[in-house]
Design brief:
heterodimer, A: about 450 residues, alpha/beta, 8-stranded mixed β-sheet, about 30% helix, globular, B: alpha/beta, about 40% helix
Chain lengths: ~450, ~325
C-alpha cells in the first residue's frame, strides 16, 4: 500500500528496447529479447519484442547488453532537509540514476527527523518536484530518533512511510522495542533495525582485533551486533512482527539469521556493498573514508557476506549511501564521521561478485531488485507486463575507474576512489523516462 | 667517530618519523648508534653543535607532557635550532578542526621540523599530510611513541650490550599504551622475546598477533626476564571498571621486590614516566640499583638529537 505522489506522464509514444539480454530475477528469466514500454509501464517482455513488431514507436537497440529491473536501494541517507550541503534529494537521485538505481528509500536521519506525517509529505513532494527517480521515505520509530517516545505508526504509514527504523542506532531499551514491534505488527509495518548494542560498542571506532590494536584504535566487537540481533529475534518471535536487520557484517550474524529462518521466523537481512567488497585492512593508515557503522570487518567476514548473498540467506544488498562533507572526514580517525557514499558505485561494485564467479547474475539482481520490492511492498523490481518501466541497461564488462569528481553525489566520500571496477550503466529509465544515458 | 660523521654514514630515507612500525633493523640500529654519539656529546661541557643552525623546530603539543617536550626542546637547542613551544588545549568538540587549521597556520610560518603530540591515534600522520616540513610523532593516542621506544632500546643496549635474545616483559596498561606498541614493534624487529603482562581488561584484542607472549600473572610473566618495563596506569581506569581498585592492582600487577625476584638477578627496571609510586611500582623498587628510570630520561635527549639529525639530512636547502 505504498503511497507515492504521481509524476506527470511524459510518455505518449511507445518505446521498445530490443536486442537485449533480459534479466528478471522475479521470474528467473535470463534470455535474449526486448521490453516494450507504453504509458510508463511495461507493455510486453520477451523474445517477441523485436524491431519488426513495435510499429512506429521509438526504438532503442540494446546491443546485446543486460536489461534488468532498476535497482531498489532500501538504505540510503539524503541531506534533505537540514543538510543540503551534503546531499539533496535531487543530487541523490542523479547519483542513483547514474548507478542504475530507480527507487531509493531514504532514512529518517534528517534535520528535522522524519518522525511526523508532515515530514513524510514534505519528502514525497520534494521528490516529485526535484528527483529523477522514485523516492520513498522511511519513518523514525521513535520521535527525533531519541529512543524515548514512539511515533504515529498508523498515520505515518498512511502518509507513505514504507518502513520504520531507529536510524543509525539500535533501540536499546528492550521493553520499548517489544512495544514498538507489537504495535507495528497491528499495522503490518516492517521494522528495519540497525544492530549495535551501544553499551558494548561504546567508544569503538573500527572492528575489534589485530588491525585496531596495531593502529591503537578502540574496537567494536562483533558481539555488539550479534547480541542485538539475538535480542531482536527473540522479541520478534514474541510479537510476530515483520523484521529486517538493516545490515549484518559478520559470519556470526549470518549464522543467527540462518537459524532464525530455519525456525520459520519472518526475518530478513541486508548487507551493504561495502561489507561485500571491502575489509578492515582497507583502512590502511587511518583512511577515514573506510570508517562506517557497522565497521568493516575481517576478510573472513567479508567472504561470509558474499556466501550469504550467493545462497540467498542475505536478502538484500544496500548502498548504505551516507554523504559526508570533507570537514567531517578530514579528521583523526576516531573523530571523523562514519559513512560512505555508494548509490552510483553499488552496481559496478556488486558486479565484482559476478565477475569473480561468486554470485550468479540472477541472484545478484534478486538482492538488488525483487527482494527489496517484495519486502517493502513495492510494485517494482520485475520485468512484467503492467509493472512500472523502471529499467537499467548495463554493459557487464566495460571497465570503469571511479573518479570522485565525476560522481553525481554532492559529497565525494567514496571508498572506491580510483577503484577499478567492471560494469557500466548505459541507461536508466524510470516510468519509461530516460533519467540517465551514458552516451550523453 | 664524531656525531657528524656517524650521521652521514647511515641512510635514513624518511621525511618523517611517525612510528616504529615499518622501520627496518638497519634504520633502528643506525638511529641507536647515532644516539650513542649524542649521549657522549651531552656529557661534555661543550654540548652545542650547529647541525640545525638556521632551522626552526616547533613543539606542537595537544596533550600535556613534561619530559618529552622538554627533551625535544633541549635536543633542538643543542643542535643549534630555534625552538618554539606551543601547547594547545582544545575543547572536545573542536578537536578535528583545530588540528588541520593549526597545521595549515603553522606551515605558513615555514618551520623545518614539527614535533607533535595529539590525543588521537593517527592525528600526527594526518597532520604530516598537510604540511611541507618534517614531522616527528611525539605520541599519538594509543598508537605510537617512537622516540620513547628508541630511548628504551638505547638504555637497554648500553646496559646489556645487545637487544637480540633478551626477554623483555612489558607490564600494565597495554590496551591504552602507545609506549607498549612502539616497544613491541622495535624489540621484535631487533630480535628480543617480548612478553606482555596485564589483566585481560587491559590487554588489546589480538595483541598476540603482534608477536608477543601474553601473561596475566606477574610472577609467571617476569620469570627469567632480562628487562621489566612498567607502564603508567591512569586513575580513570578504575572508574571505567577496568580494574577494581588501586590496592588490588598494586597487589597483583604492581612491581615490588617479591615479583621482581622472579626476573633475572641483573634484570633492569624501566618506566617511561611519569610514575605512580604505589600504583604500578613500589617506591623502593623505583629507586633500586636495578632501576634505570633516570637514565631513560638522559637517553631521551640523546635519541631525540639523533632523530633530528637523521631527518635534518633530508631537509631542503636554499
Amino acid at each position: 500500500m505504498a503511497m507515492t505522489i504521481e509524476k506527470p506522464q511524459h510518455q505518449a509514444r511507445a518505446t521498445a528496447l530490443v536486442n537485449a539480454r533480459l534479466i528478471d530475477p522475479a521470474s528467473g528469466l535470463d534470455e535474449a529479447g526486448g521490453v516494450l514500454i507504453a504509458d510508463g509501464k511495461i507493455a510486453a517482455v520477451g523474445a517477441k519484442v523485436t524491431q519488426e513488431n513495435v510499429g512506429d514507436g521509438e526504438l532503442i537497440d540494446c546491443g546485446g547488453h543486460v536489461l534488468a529491473p532498476g535497482l531498489i536501494d532500501m538504505l540510503m541517507f539524503s541531506g534533505e532537509p537540514g543538510n543540503e550541503h551534503r546531499e539533496t534529494l535531487a543530487t541523490a537521485s542523479q547519483a542513483a540514476a547514474a548507478g542504475g538505481v530507480t527507487t531509493i528509500v531514504c532514512m529518517p536521519n534528517t534535520d528535522p527527523v522524519i518522525d511526523d506525517v508532515a515530514l513524510v509529505d514534505f519528502i514525497l513532494r520534494r521528490a516529485r518536484d526535484t528527483a529523477e527517480v522514485n523516492v520513498h521515505p522511511m519513518a523514525a520509530m521513535t520521535k527525533e530518533l531519541r529512543s524515548e517516545e514512539m511515533t504515529e505508526f498508523g498515520l505515518l504509514r498512511e502518509a507513505g512511510a514504507l518502513a520504520f527504523t531507529n536510524g543509525k542506532t539500535s533501540l536499546a531499551n528492550a521493553k520499548m522495542m517489544r512495544n514498538v514491534m507489537a504495535y507495528a505488527k497491528d499495522f503490518g509495518a516492517l521494522i528495519i533495525h540497525h544492530l549495535e548494542e551501544p553499551t558494548l560498542s561504546e567508544g569503538g571506532v573500527m572492528n575489534e582485533g589485530e588491525v585496531a590494536t596495531r593502529l591503537g584504535l578502540p574496537g567494536i566487537p562483533r558481539e555488539a551486533e550479534t547480541i542485538m540481533l539475538e535480542r531482536d529475534i527473540s522479541l520478534m518471535a514474541l510479537t510476530g512482527v515483520r523484521y529486517h536487520a538493516s545490515q549484518i557484517s559478520c559470519r556470526a550474524s549470518l549464522d543467527i539469521i540462518r537459524e532464525a529462518k530455519a525456525r520459520g521466523l519472518p526475518v530478513t537481512c541486508g548487507v551493504s556493498i561495502n561489507h561485500l567488497t571491502l575489509n578492515e585492512n582497507d583502512i590502511g593508515s587511518y583512511r577515514t573514508f573506510f570508517k562506517m557503522r557497522p565497521p568493516l570487518r575481517s576478510e573472513e567476514d567479508r567472504s561470509a557476506m558474499v556466501e550469504g548473498v550467493a545462497c540467498g540467506d542475505i536478502d538484500v544488498i544496500v548502498s548504505a549511501h551516507d554523504p559526508q562533507d570533507a570537514d567531517r572526514k578530514r579528521r583523526p580517525f576516531a573523530e571523523a564521521a562514519d559513512g560512505a557514499i555508494g548509490l552510483e558505485t553499488m552496481l559496478p561494485a556488486a558486479l565484482r561478485l559476478y565477475h569473480n564467479d561468486e554470485v550468479t547474475l540472477l541472484t545478484l539482481f534478486r538482492a538488488l531488485t525483487a527482494n527489496p520490492a517484495k519486502l517493502l511492498g513495492l510494485d517494482a523490481g520485475r520485468l512484467h507486463k503492467g509493472a512500472p518501466a523502471d529499467l537499467v541497461l548495463l554493459d557487464l564488462n566495460a571497465p570503469l575507474v571511479v573518479t570522485p569528481e565525476r560522481l553525481h553525489s554532492r559529497s565525494k566520500n567514496t571508498p572506491f576512489d580510483e577503484a577499478r571496477l567492471q560494469g557500466r550503466v548505459l541507461m536508466t529509465l524510470v516510468a519509461g523516462r530516460r533519467v540517465y544515458n551514458y552516451a550523453d | 667517530m664524531s656525531i657528524a660523521a656517524a650521521a652521514t654514514e647511515f641512510s635514513f630515507p624518511h621525511r618523517h618519523l611517525l612510528g616504529i612500525e615499518g622501520l627496518s633493523r638497519q634504520e633502528i640500529v643506525g638511529l641507536l648508534d647515532l644516539s650513542e654519539h649524542a649521549a657522549t656529546l651531552s656529557r661534555q661541557v661543550a654540548k652545542k653543535r650547529d647541525d640545525l643552525r638556521g632551522r626552526t623546530l616547533i613543539n606542537l603539543f595537544f596533550e600535556a607532557s613534561t619530559r618529552t617536550q622538554s627533551s625535544f626542546e633541549l635536543a633542538g637547542k643543542r643542535l643549534g635550532a630555534d625552538v618554539m613551544n606551543m601547547s594547545i588545549r582544545t575543547s572536545s568538540v573542536q578537536k578535528g578542526e583545530t588540528l588541520i587549521d593549526t597545521a595549515v597556520t603553522l606551515n605558513a610560518m615555514r618551520p623545518d621540523i614539527l614535533v607533535v603530540r595529539h590525543h588521537a591515534a593517527g592525528a600526527v600522520e594526518l597532520l604530516s599530510q598537510k604540511v611541507g616540513c618534517s614531522v616527528i610523532n611525539a605520541g599519538d593516542g594509543g598508537h605510537e611513541h617512537p622516540t620513547q621506544a628508541l630511548l628504551d632500546a638505547l638504555t637497554i643496549r648500553r646496559h646489556k650490550g645487545r637487544i637480540d635474545g633478551l626477554i623483555v616483559a612489558i607490564c600494565g596498561d597495554i590496551l591504552h599504551s602507545r609506549v607498549a606498541r612502539s616497544n613491541i614493534f622495535l624489540l621484535n624487529t631487533l630480535g628480543a622475546r617480548v612478553r606482555v603482562v596485564a589483566p585481560s581488561t587491559l590487554l588489546a584484542s589480538g595483541i598476540a598477533r603482534l608477536g608477543v607472549e601474553v601473561y596475566s600473572s606477574m610472577w609467571e610473566g617476569l620469570k627469567d626476564a632480562d628487562i621489566v618495563m612498567m607502564l603508567r596506569l591512569q586513575r580513570e581506569r578504575m572508574s571505567s571498571n577496568l580494574v577494581p581498585s588501586q590496592r588490588e592492582y598494586f597487589h597483583f600487577f604492581g612491581l615490588d621486590y617479591d615479583k621482581l625476584a622472579c626476573a633475572k638477578p641483573d634484570a633492569l627496571v624501566m618506566h617511561p614516566g611519569p610514575m605512580n609510586r604505589g600504583m604500578e611500582i613500589d617506591s623502593n623498587v623505583a629507586d633500586d640499583a636495578r632501576s634505570v628510570i633516570r637514565e631513560q630520561v638522559e637517553m631521551g635527549v640523546a635519541v631525540r638529537m639523533a632523530v633530528l639529525q637523521a631527518l635534518a639530512r633530508h631537509l631542503p636547502n636554499d
